[in-house]
From TrEMBL:
Residues 490-993 are annotated as: Adenylyl transferase. HAMAP family: GlnE. Residues 1-476 are annotated as: Adenylyl removase. Belongs to the GlnE family. One of its GO terms (cellular component) is cytosol. Residues 61-310, 595-848 form the Glutamate-ammonia ligase adenylyltransferase repeated domain. This is Bifunctional glutamine synthetase adenylyltransferase/adenylyl-removing enzyme. Pfam families: GlnD_UR_UTase, GlnE. Its EC number is 2.7.7.89, 2.7.7.42.
Length: 993
């Protein structure tokens, strides 16, 4: 039955496409006529009758798809009944799931007896499914977009791989048997790793599939007519699997297979054991192979073993540190591509050309390579998923991602259309006018010029974002130099100086021109570094990174306010990372980070020293918005939780390292904001205290988990089992308790619990409750003080516990209260003024607060108290004060210093607390002084002057810490403040003097 002329509506077609529609109608007419003849001879229903029963909407879709895709036309001409089958099964609207596809393929392979039939079945199965995929891509029913299309092609490839592999294993078993089991008893199968877009689950319509084959362990096959070594067996199996998909037969091919990404490429073994692959990547793996393995995913064979293999290779792909050396590798790869594109005249190639698909992929994968080891959220194979995770990590602005993703989708949609025309792998724009009209129709754009205009706009945006991430930093610095106004030495000048290409007088003149005062010292330091044994013995990659960095570093040093001190402070950092050259790459790739480094090192030798000791802190220079903005306590706790959440709970070493890096990084942020003047002094101490509190909570939780895993839970006083929250208190004294931590402060701690001291824990290895809590306290101290590559967390002082060093490490709340009531000295009650709970159980904390208020709120003999406080102050001054030079003043210990103010506050709380309970609430001096004012216990003017004095003294002490100087000031600078303090002291504590 012939197809009527109006069977394929031309409503939405441009006039230029009508001849193509007529050609398609004629070919289908001939094909259906032949199919009808066969049906009539066999007594079956004629296909043309079912075709003519299609509704108008489906016929409109058919016209559209046939005009655009010769692949669809050729397929329907060969297999006219397929359209009806796909329509009936719903495959023209919805992609079948992997399980359904696998079941369909298994059914088709059920009766296959030889490899030729296997090849035929796979190719027809793939062609039928691709008919549905192309149809859906060109008609775009609901829920279908580029990502759905790419996912459907990837799923189809995986199903074909697994189906073919399973059939081949069973087919070959009688001849060669099966591989012997692994040493742990598990079955061995081939592991098929999908690379590139297959690994990402984002294949093109007509894409190669990049594969790597592996197997777990050496051995021999068993149960067949002939035994083979595993290497030979898996090689033969792999060859047959490739042929099953890749060989061109009368039915075409299923998937083109590319094995060149395997170790040693085409010259290497087709299949490798896990151990050989691990050894190769460890000893010989190259940067481009890290890039390739970003997308590696097990797509067929033994999925569990594949996950094990990729887990073993993860350290090769994702470095623990921020690996900015990866950018240079990507830059080199892109340069190679650019040269190839230029040589072959492929600038219009939408994948490899400027602003093309590959540049979007490079942007995303650069962040994965650089930060994936630290930000494990980026350890994903999907580009779409990785791209979406960049803004929450602060790596790309959301606005950039909001441009990149739709631009990438447009490029991939265009790529799919180009490939749908003939089922051919191409990314080149068509030159034929008819094909151009087809592309415009597929993209639902007005005409070809509209397509070109949109493409140019997209590629320009992509290129800008690519350059922002991948561009050479030297170009940025030279551009800044050209636009800077003032004359500035070029990077070539600094390169000549560093490479010792200048005569000594020329070098000294250049340094003087750049603003150095001590030119000979600076030159001597640079020459000494270049000629040092460390530099001379560097490996080539590290040496090249140093050579690339030093001109940029010297340029940044010269831009600082004090080049001499900046150079003197930053060179020890460079020396410390000569063996960890990823940090050289980090600084080289981030000129802005270099600038921040100079600012901080120029202002603070303490910061310079911290960076030299812990180069991992250089990571913080990359994000100025957080570097100069310390997090509040809630954000600190959340960030630490996320950091620890990325690590295995049983990997204590990794957790300890993470805690220390967290502490050093956040203290650096506080110091940076301190130097920049963006934080009030009180806030600086607050933030330093928050950091300690968050870390103490984490350490206590780690110690609690460790003890309860070994010994079970202790019992409460009422006999019930303790909960998951540690029923334990860490009480902070001194600066920690007073919310006045400095940059190098120790932690004065006291440990308290309130469990049943007569019971034992309920675990498999029970111990007495007091022993449990003693070990818990010891564990906390160990976690705080243990040395890792990132140093220690804090030094800990436990001497303020009841009975000092002679007392128990951990005491019950009842025993603590009894000691404070009966045995504590006045100075211990003074210390209790500055005590507060900093970590632990909330209900137990309330009990401690009650005890503290009871002790501090006692009515005391004021004269006796005054005598004890004065006696203790004089004793401290004898030991710690009076060591200043003439004209200098010890900010802490000399008369009129910080300790005098602290003693004044402590005396006031102990003397007046019974009458003014609000004084018992606070542990910090500033709020105590504010309460003395608000309660009328001291004159308002005096309280304000004491607060001003205390802030001035503490501010000077903070600056001294950052500049590595003694906490001293000039007497004349602090004379007024000292007089306020001394007058208040004499009035309140030594009225007789």
């Amino acid at each position: 039955m012939p197809i009527p002329d109006d069977f394929l509506p031309d409503d939405d077609l441009a006039p230029a496409l009508l001849p193509a529609l007529e050609k398609a109608r004629q070919r289908l007419d001939e094909s259906l006529a032949q199919a009808d003849n066969v049906a009539e001879m066999t007594g079956q229903e004629c296909p043309s009758e079912n075709w003519l029963a299609l509704d108008r909407e489906r016929r409109c879709q058919l016209a559209r798809v046939l005009v655009i895709s010769d692949f669809v036309l050729d397929t329907l001409v060969r297999y006219p009944d397929w359209l009806l089958h796909l329509d009936a099964s719903g495959e023209l609207e919805t992609a079948p799931g992997a399980d359904i596809l696998a079941a369909w393929l298994a059914e088709r392979l059920e009766g296959v007896e030889d490899e030729a039939d296997l090849h035929a079945a796979l190719r027809r199965f793939r062609r039928a499914r691709m008919l549905g995929i192309v149809w859906r891509d060109l008609t775009r029913p609901p829920e279908i977009d580029m990502w759905a299309t790419a996912g459907a092609v990837s799923t189809l490839a995986e199903v074909c791989l697994e189906g073919a592999l399973d059939w081949l294993e069973r087919h070959l078993e009688p001849r060669w048997g099966r591989p012997t089991a692994r040493s742990d008893g598990r079955e061995q199968r081939l592991v098929v790793l999908g690379m590139g877009k297959l690994g990402a689950g984002e294949l093109n319509l007509s894409s190669d599939i990049d594969l790597i084959f592996a197997y777990p362990e050496q051995g021999e096959t068993e149960g067949g007519r002939k035994s083979l070594e595993h290497q030979e067996y898996f090689t033969k199996l792999g060859q047959k699997l490739i042929a099953a998909l890749d060989a061109v037969t009368a039915d075409g091919f299923a998937f083109r297979v590319d094995m060149r990404l395997r170790p040693l490429g085409e010259g290497g073994p087709l299949v490798g054991s896990f151990s050989s692959l691990a050894a190769y990547y460890q000893d010989q793996g190259r940067e481009w192979e890290r890039y390739a393995l970003l997308k590696a995913r097990t797509v067929a064979g033994d999925l569990e073993a594949g996950a094990e293999l990729l887990g073993n290779l993860r350290p090769f792909v994702y470095r623990k540190y921020l690996d900015f050396g990866a950018i240079e590798s990507l830059r080199e790869m892109k340069a190679l591509i650019n040269r190839e594109v230029k040589r072959k005249g492929m600038q219009a190639n939408i994948k490899l050309g400027p602003g093309g698909i590959r540049e979007v992929e490079f942007v995303v994968q650069a962040f994965q390579l650089i930060r994936g080891g630290r930000d494990t959220e980026l350890q994903v194979t999907s580009l779409r998923t990785a791209l979406s995770r960049l803004p929450p990590l602060g790596l790309l602005p959301q606005g950039v991602v909001d441009e990149l993703e739709p631009d990438y989708v447009f490029l991939r949609d265009l790529e799919h259309v180009l490939q749908a025309l003939e089922d051919r792998q191409t990314q080149s724009l068509p030159g034929d006018d008819l094909d151009r009209e087809r592309v415009a129709l597929a993209l639902e754009m007005e005409d070809w010029p509209a397509v070109v205009a949109r493409l140019e706009e997209v590629r320009e945006r992509v290129r800008q974002h690519f350059d922002a991430v991948i561009a050479d930093p030297e170009e940025e610095v030279e551009e800044a130099s050209d636009n800077g106004g003032e004359e500035r030495l070029s990077l070539d000048d600094w390169r000549a100086l560093w490479c010792d290409e200048l005569e000594e007088q020329e070098a000294l003149a250049l340094l003087a021109e750049a603003g150095f005062d001590q030119t000979e010292t600076a030159l001597r330091r640079l020459v000494g570094l270049r000629q040092s044994r460390q530099v001379q013995s560097m490996q080539r990659i590290g040496y090249d990174r140093l050579e690339a960095l030093m001109p940029l570093l010297l340029d940044a040093v010269a831009e600082s306010e004090t080049p001499d001190s900046a150079l003197e402070r930053v060179l020890p950092l460079i020396e410390s990372v000569l063996r960890r050259t990823a940090y050289l790459a980090l600084l080289r790739e981030n000129p802005e980070a270099l600038s921040h480094l100079m600012e901080l090192c120029s202002a603070s030798p303490w910061i310079a020293e911290q960076l030299a000791r812990y180069p991992i802190l250089l990571d913080e220079l990359l994000t100025p918005e957080t570097l100069y903005t310390p997090a509040d306590k809630a954000r600190l706790a959340d960030e630490l939780r996320q950091s620890l959440g990325r690590l295995p709970e049983d990997d204590e070493e990794a957790q300890l390292e993470a805690l220390r890096v967290f502490k050093h990084a956040h203290v650096l942020r506080v110091a940076a904001s301190d130097i920049a003047g963006t934080r009030h002094l009180m806030k600086v101490s607050d933030y330093l205290t928050y950091i300690a509190e968050v870390l103490l909570e984490a350490v206590l939780a780690m110690a609690w988990r460790h003890l309860v895993r070994k010994h079970g839970y202790p019992l409460r006083r009422d006999g019930s089992r303790a909960g998951a929250e540690p029923e334990f208190l860490i009480v902070g004294y001194g600066k920690l308790g007073g919310i006045e931590l400095g940059y190098g402060s120790d932690l004065d701690l006291v440990f308290i619990h309130d469990a049943d001291a007569q019971s034992e824990t309920d675990g498999a290895r029970p111990i007495d409750t007091p022993v449990f809590f003693t070990r818990l306290g010891q564990r906390v101290i160990h976690l705080l003080t243990a040395v890792t590559p990132a140093g220690t967390l804090y030094e800990v002082d436990m001497r303020l516990r009841p009975s000092g060093n002679a007392g128990l490490l951990v005491t019950t709340l009842e025993a603590f209260a009894d000691y404070q009531r009966r045995e504590a000295w006045t100075w211990e009650h003074q210390a209790l003024v500055r005590a507060r709970v900093v970590a632990g159980h909330s209900c137990l904390a309330e009990g401690f607060d009650d005890v503290r208020c009871e002790i501090l709120g006692r009515e005391r003999d004021r004269e006796a108290l005054r005598g004890e406080v004065v006696k203790m102050r004089h004793k401290m001054r004898e030991h710690l004060g009076g060591k200043s030079e003439a004209g200098e003043f010890d900010l802490k210990h000399d008369p009129g210093g910080m300790v005098d103010i602290e003693f004044l506050c402590q005396f006031a709380v102990l003397a007046m607390g019974h009458e003014t309970p609000e004084l018992l609430r606070w542990s910090d001096n500033m709020r105590i002084l504010e309460t003395l004012e608000s309660s009328g216990r001291l004159p308002a003017e005096e309280c304000q002057r004491l607060r001003d004095a205390y802030l001035a003294l503490r501010s000077a002490a903070h600056r001294a810490s950052l500049t590595r100087e003694a906490a001293r000031g000039r007497e004349e600078d602090f004379a007024a403040h000292r007089k306020v303090v001394i007058d208040a002291w004499q009035r309140l504590l030594e009225p007789q003097a």
